[in-house]
Structures are given as structure tokens and as C-alpha cells.
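Sanity check

After download, print the first record. It should look like this:
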Amino acid sequence: MRLSAILLATQALQRPAMAWAGLQSIPSQPACYDFNVTVHVSKTTDQSFINQVYDLDILYVLAGKQILVSNSYNISSRLCEPLQTNTHSDTLQVMVHGASFNKNMWHSQYQPKIYNWVQRMNKEGYYTLAVDLIGNGNSTFPDGLLEVQTRGYVETTHQLIQLIRNGAVGGRRWRKVVFVGFSIGAIVANSLAQ
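Expected C-alpha cells:
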């Protein structure tokens, strides 16, 4: 008895699917792809800080907006495609989160019609690329004093944008790259604009 009821229910569910097979469905959520982008940063000071304890020299060099260590980092990224292409489809929005957040802040599940930036921008026809700054989310976690500093954020983001402009991210060249920053992400944007 139970088996026959399951078979009848399965057949009933299949019929509507077959009736709608010829219609194209419009997704309600953007298609998103997670991947890493490797960027390289070169130090801009002659001083060596390897295996050094916390001291004032480090703070003075950081205040001078110097990069203290040369290194390569994996930047965790999420590219989301628009629901429908339009005149904005040649524009990529690069989104950098705030301090103590990660790339998921742009994908808010709380009242998404109001607070989900990715969903809204993809609905408007924009591609979006949310990234985790080094030391956050799924990106590389380097030394917190010597590498995870505002200047390191600026330089790794600059390298990422250069890769985007050269077509090495997202598999295409974008006509426009728009930077969207929140909190420390906005400080990065301001530094890049100078």
C-alpha cells in the first residue's frame, strides 16, 4: 500500500514538470562561483622585520604606509552573474567588506530584498565580485602585525584589480570596474583613488 502511494505521488509530481518542460525558467537567485585569485605584494621598505618582536620601528614604518614583507596571497573571491543581461553586463562591481566581516556580508540573508547587495545588483544586470581581504574569510591568513595592515589591503586589492583589467579574473575583460567598499573597504577605495 505504501509503495503504491509513493509511486502515485512520484507520477503526479512528474506530470507537471513534463508539462512545463518547454518553458524557460527565470532563476530567482544569481549564479555564483567561489574561487581563489593569487596576488603578489612586494615590500617597499629597506628594513627587515622577519622574526622581529613588536617594537616602535614597525609602527613608524607602518605609519609611513610601507609594505613590510614580500609575499603571495590567495584572495578568496565570489563572482555572481546577473539574472538577465542588459547594458550593465559589461560592468564588474568589486566589493570589499568592512573590518571584522568577510565577503558574505554582501549576501545578507536577513531581509534580502533590502540588505542583499549582490541579489539587488545582479537583478539590475551587474556582475559582482565579492572578495575577502587577507586575514579574513577564506583568504590567506598571514602575520597579523607585519602583513595584515591597511597598506597590505590596498596593495593586494590593487593587484587584484590589475588582474581583473587584464582579463585574468572572471574569464573576460570588463569595460568598467566599479569599486564598492564598506568601512575598511571604503578606506581601501580611497587609498586606491589617490
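If your output differs, re-run the checksum step. Summary of this record's structure: The first strand starts at residue 32 and ends at 41.
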